[in-house]
Structures are given as C-alpha cells and as structure tokens.
Amino acid sequence: MSFQDRTQHQIGQIDKEVYIDEEMIQLSKYPMLNNFEKQTSVPKVYAFLGLVGIYFFLVFFNIAGEFLVNFAGFLVPGYYSLEALFSASKVDDTQWLTYWVVYAFLSVFESAVNAVYWFPFYYTFKFVLVLWMALPQTGGAQIVFRSFIQPVFSRFFSQSGSTAANLRSQADQATKPHAM
Question: Please, which domain of life does this record's source organism belong to (predicted)?
C-alpha cells in the first residue's frame, strides 16, 4: 500500500470516527459540515482538518494565542464539567474538579511568573499541556495534581480535625448545654 493510499485510508477513518474524550464523534452527523460539503464539494474531513490546522497555526504563531488556548482550556472541559454535575457518577466529578484546580493553579502561576516573555512558543506549549490535562485518556490533570500540587498543599488540608464535618461536630459539642 502506497503512502497516498494509507493517507486516504486514514482520512476516511477520520470521517467515520473521531474520538474526543472516549466518545466517538461522526462528522456526518453535523448538518453544518454536510451542508459545507454539498456547497463546496470539499470533503468534510478536509474542512475539519483544515480548521484544526488553522487553530494550531494561530496558536503556534501567537495570533490571539492566549485567547485560543484559554478557549480550548475552558470550553470542552467546561462542557464536560457541566455534564458531570448532572450525572449520578462521582468519578467524573472528581476528575473535572481536579482539572479545574490544576488549571486555576497554573493560571495564577502563569500570571505571577509572566512566562510569556521568557519562554518562546509559550502558548504552543500551554496548548499541548491543556489538551493533555483535559483528556481523560491521559489523566494529565491527576498527574500534575499528584506530582506538584498535592505534595505542597496536602499538609494544609489533610490534618485530622480540620474537616468540615469534624469542625461542625466540635461546634455542636461546644454549644450544647452542659449537664450538671
């Protein structure tokens, strides 16, 4: 099989199935892409890959890089966070809460350090990092949390007697009238 045949096969696979967050997305189910394909005679796969390429190009050359990276870091995780809140499972709640804690920590760290001026192609690196953290298949947010944030901040949150339930029971005990 030649390189061109393999490429055409892979492009055909993209049209059939694109996986985003373990969910198969078929490009054919989007009317906008189907209408675009009918009107322009350009396959919807090429339009999809072109949009992804333009998005990455803009991030790479920092043409609205900060906005595009923050958009990618907020839109899809925000959607899945809302979906997790409306589901009965608590596993996805923990996953997305961890993502938002890490994302917030990195945003505050980024503004404090002002890394944009010191690091060339910063937004390209941040874009890849945000995608890695947001994808459940990679578990990136959990890795960053367990490797950096948890060791630093666990001493402030894991002390016995500091939980909300324990504090509430201590307050209840203190406010009960003492029997004499």
Answer: Eukaryota
